[in-house]
Amino acid sequence: MPILDRLRTAWNAFVHNPETLTGLDYTSASFGSTPPSRSKLRFYNERSIVASIYNRISIDVAGVPLRHIKLDELNRYKEDVKSNLNNCLMLEANLDQAPRQFRQDIVMTLFDKGVAALVPVDTTVNPNTNEIVDIFTLRVGEIVDWYPKHVRVSVYNEKTGRRQELVLAKRFVAIVENPLYTVMNEPNSTLQRLIRKLGLLDAVDEQSSSGKLDLIIQLPYVIKSEARRVQAEQRRQDIELQLKGSQYGIAYTDGTEKITQLNRPAENNLLKQIEYLTNMLYGQLGITEEVMNGTADEKAMINYFNRTIEPIVEAIVQAMQRSFLGPVGTLEQQRITYFKDPFKLVPVSEVAEIADKFTRNEIFSSNEIRGFMGIPPSDDPKADKLVNSNMPQPQPDSVA
Length: 400
Description:
The protein is an alpha+beta fold. It has three domains: 3-184, no CATH class; 213-262; 342-393, no CATH class. Helices cover 41% and strands 18% of the residues. The two termini are 53 Å apart. The model is unreliable at 20-31 (pLDDT under 50).
């Protein structure tokens, strides 16, 4: 696009928003050791094993790259579209995030809030239809309020260094809802019940390790008069001073006094309930302990991808397709899609056999197989052709 046309049609979510805060500079921005653009989990998620589940799934989802492509007449992949949106998906989403960080930020926000908003910050729009033509930067936002045709979104503004609330039309924002919302975000879902049980267990642990002895001293006389109460209080203070001033916490009592300790471990079924809810959550999310600790086999990983990763990636792709490309881009055979690496879970011992089958059946060329393995392409012209090297090839007619 020519520079003048691009400037004429440029649109920025913060500049053109009626509720944009003006007059801010870097002196009024807050900075720290943590990037302010990064999504932060709520405190009760950070303190539990739930954060590790979020992190594991978000890393795996972020490992699936997204691309802006074009299809042919038969709806087959034809080529990548040379657009700024594709640069956001494959090179740089914004000033602070690479594409993988951006995808992980989407999933972490999705899990913690239930809904994530993908906000196109710097775009070009069609002056006639007011539709998005191309996108230069993307940010992950948190939806604060819902309106019939708009949403109020909290987005990080890289110009001021602060998060800022914007009111944007729903058709401009890719709104992604967590496909596992019923399991993870509903008030009485399995995950929320597990979070509450973990909170109770933490409270019990803090109470039992608070440093209190919880002793009852049985004195050899009846405490009914005021003088006896004063005498009992003095005896209690004496024992406290002995325990506090002793290096090993030892005190002495009279032979007629009896001490009962109350802070003995109380039997409860919290731990059993947590183990039960954790196993139930793993089953409902489609993950296993082997997936979490990295020892799962190929079948378990394929099941995990199909049941957990694929629905999340597909929800993100469909939201981007609907909002960023719209009906016009869809009619032009443009798509936002993802490609799963077919050799990612294959052991090295099987790569040679798989490569032989693909080339022999003329599915991939030799250079395409070399590209999957990270090997530079061969200069041999035959390496770019779909041929079966195990079969004799027809020779071109010789020129008389």
